[in-house]
Write a structure and sequence with these properties.
The structure holds 2 protein chains of 2 kinds. By secondary structure, chain A is of the alpha/beta class. Chain A has a single domain, classed as TIM Barrel, CATH 3.20.20.210. Helix content of chain A is 51%, strand content 10%. Chain A has 17 helices and 11 strands. In chain A, the strands form 3 sheets. Chain A has a 6-stranded parallel beta sheet. In chain A, strands 4-3-5 form a 3-stranded mixed beta sheet. In chain A, strands 1-2 form a two-stranded parallel sheet. In chain A, β9, α14 and β10 form a beta-alpha-beta unit. The longest helix of chain A is centred in the middle third of the chain and has 33 residues. Chain A starts with 6 loop residues before the first helix and ends with a helix. Chain B has a 5-stranded parallel beta sheet with strand order 2-1-3-4-5, with helices on both faces. In chain B, α1 packs antiparallel against α2 and α5 crosses α9. The radius of gyration of chain B is 19 Å and the shape is elongated. Chains A and B meet through α10 and α15 of A and α4, α7 and α8 of B.
Chain lengths: 427, 210
């Protein structure tokens, strides 16, 4: 490697079918920890599409045809191996009549705001016992009415375990005609329709990108979380979960075991039903700085590791977003089976990641978003060459930005980055 | 001073700390002395955080203990205790960004290191920083941000401070998960800090505090 190649002639004269086959193979090889023909590049354009297209972020989220048009245009301009738009979608959130844990552009934010989660203590300490007794029942009758205001009618339902009463439970069904329950079920049905339509648009987008020769994004798959993050992100919130570590460690551990079991069942069913054998696991509170290593060993890593091992056993590749910095925790990741998982690294020292995990997992990431926004062409080129030579060495590397979103990145610098990767990324 | 209380707080013995507080107060201890114990304990917590022995769970629990003890002590105080006289820091998460974890840690660490901190919260409009610099007259302005969108917000905030003619009066630091030296230069700030200790070190160096 490292002999410069002419970018202009690299893919000249190839049909979309050829390009799709080559790009899919290139990404697959990298994921399998093999050496592809060259380093694959995946661009998660995100809000950069709105900037390039001169539309608001709200329109990018809500006008699927425009979004697809801009995605295709950007992909054709930069010619990566795979490309995607924004990950989060407000369709079902809006249809369900309000969602206290998210804010989308134009909904609680200005039209050009940036999608964000609103973390809260949606599950109180006193909810642990009900959660542990039956997480599904607690979620539907207690939690949904709290986080989705229009689902308040579900609080009227009898305990869901009553469903097991068979014929006798039919005598409880009258409650489903109570006006608040009817209203909530209608909002649920609307959300289901909106989500099914969004799913169809997402599938259509993948097909249209394939027709142009672009491979599907590598982290497209089932979505689950590390059990600790599951308890933290949408239930206890940061403050709550950090106090649980000291105040009720046994309950937290028991709850995480529950989350592990039902999330695994979901991911395996999802992958078997769709045939897409990938599960995306974005991580939040496990990175350096949130908790100590002994706490990490007790509360974070065991269930995350068990989750990945079980998925691998089921023939599924966990594609894990190691958000934040994992420099002090790389040795734990080295316990994972070689070539069976992939990691996108946000701010970890990517050269150290290669050193410790190069033989363990496919590494995605490398390019700093800050450099693509505030750097110079020379800086971008130099950094890209270094990444190709050091992190690309021997394969098992997918070039992407560390953050799975490219808002603010300057198109001319993105071009330098992509072209330099093609020039120096040939094996 | 009660060494027992200081250790209970510093060692994260929540129930013991509260029981001791009540015991001391019932025994006629000076409420001010108890607050002084809290301050001493928080200093130890801060030092352990600096040494990577304590992390966020301990900072949050320490904050909770402090709140609970203050609630016990306050009704018995004859007059309010005066604030510290340290240098002033104006802190906030920039426009469009609602992340507060990093900001809150910086607040805690500056506080235990003797700075007066005014925290403007999250999603702070550019103009708000300008107004508060005029009113509060801070020595240091600390901008926090996590989203990549904050790159631009930081730049706009510094530009507004400059346009208002206030730039020479303050030192500006930036920090947060996605920040780096590149963005510091881009935003026109004086320094970038990679963690809360860096914020303390910078603030001390700029204000001549020990």
């Amino acid at each position: 490697m490292a002999t410069a190649t002419s970018v202009a002639t690299l893919d000249a004269g190839k049909t979309a079918e050829q390009l799709l086959a080559e790009r899919t193979q290139r990404l697959q090889d990298a994921l399998q920890l093999k050496q592809p023909d060259r380093i694959p590049i995946q661009l998660g354009f995100g809000y950069m599409l709105a900037e390039m297209g001169g539309i608001t972020r709200q329109e990018l989220h809500e006008n699927a045809e425009k979004e697809q048009e801009l995605l295709e245009k950007a992909a054709l301009e930069f010619q990566p191996d795979s490309a995607m738009s924004v990950y989060n979608n407000p369709a079902s959130s809006l249809a369900i009549g309000g969602d206290r844990m998210t804010r989308f552009p134009g909904h609680g934010l200005p039209p050009n705001g940036s999608f964000q989660f609103v973390e809260g203590e949606y599950m109180k300490p006193e909810d642990y016992d009900a959660f542990l007794a039956d997480p599904g029942d607690w979620a539907i009758r207690k939690y949904w009415p709290r986080v989705f205001p229009e689902l308040d009618g579900l609080a009227l339902l009898p305990p869901l375990g009553m469903a097991a009463f068979g014929h006798y439970n039919l005598y409880n069904l009258g409650v489903l005609k109570a006006p608040p329950v009817v209203k909530s079920l209608q909002f649920l049905a609307r959300a289901a329709e909106a989500q099914a339509a969004a799913d169809a648009r997402a599938i259509n987008s993948v097909k249209r990108m394939a027709a142009l020769g672009f491979a599907p994004p590598t982290f497209m798959g089932a979505l689950v979380e590390a059990p600790f993050d599951f308890m933290s992100d949408t239930l206890r919130g940061m403050r709550g979960i950090m106090l649980d570590i000291h105040r009720r460690p046994e309950k937290l551990l028991a709850a995480m075991d529950k989350c592990l079991a039902f999330q695994l069942e979901h991911a395996i069913n999802w992958c078997n039903a769709t045939g897409i054998k990938v599960t995306f696991i974005p991580l939040h509170r496990g990175s350096d700085g949130f908790m100590s290593l002994p706490q990490f060993e007790k509360f974070y890593w065991p269930t995350l590791k068990a989750m990945q091992l079980a998925l691998v056993d089921a023939g599924i590749m966990p594609f894990v977003f190691y958000e934040g910095v994992w420099d002090q925790r790389l040795k734990y990741l080295a316990e994972l089976p070689p070539g069976k998982t992939a990691g996108l690294f946000q701010f970890s020292d990517i050269y150290k990641v290669k050193e410790v995990l190069g033989e363990v997992m496919c590494i995605a990431g490398g390019m700093r978003n800050s450099l693509l926004q505030a750097g110079t062409a020379d800086e971008v080129r130099a950094e890209t060459i270094k990444l190709c030579r050091e992190v690309g060495r021997g394969g098992g590397f997918i070039m992407t930005t560390g953050i799975g979103e490219m808002e603010g990145c300057r198109p001319e610098l993105v071009k330098v980055w992509v072209d330099t990767t093609k020039e120096y990324g040939v094996y | 001073m009660s060494a027992e209380l200081v250790h209970a707080i510093a060692d994260m013995q929540e129930e013991e700390a509260l029981a001791l507080t009540r015991q001391l107060l019932d025994g006629g201890a000076d409420p001010i002395a108890i607050l002084e114990d809290c301050r001493a304990a928080m200093e130890i917590v801060g030092q352990r955080f600096e040494k990577n022995e304590y992390f966020i769970p301990e900072l949050i629990l320490a904050g909770e203990m402090l709140k609970a003890i203050s609630a016990e002590v306050k009704p018995r105080l004859k007059h309010s205790v005066d604030g510290k006289g340290g240098a002033r820091v104006l802190l906030g998460t920039v426009k469009g960004d609602i992340h507060d974890i990093g900001k809150d840690i910086v607040h805690f660490m500056l506080d235990v290191n003797g700075f007066q901190v005014k925290d403007l919260g999250v999603d702070v409009p550019v103009e708000k920083f300008v107004e508060e610099i005029k009113a509060y007259k801070p020595d240091v302005v600390a901008l926090s941000g996590f989203l990549t969108l904050a790159y631009t917000s930081m730049k706009e905030t510094v530009e507004a401070i400059t346009a208002a003619g206030l730039r020479p009066q303050v030192k500006i630091m930036i920090g947060g998960g996605t920040m780096d030296q590149q963005i510091c230069a881009y935003a026109g700030a004086d320094a970038f800090g990679k963690d809360a200790m860096a914020a303390v070190t910078l603030a001390k160096a700029w204000t001549g505090a020990n």
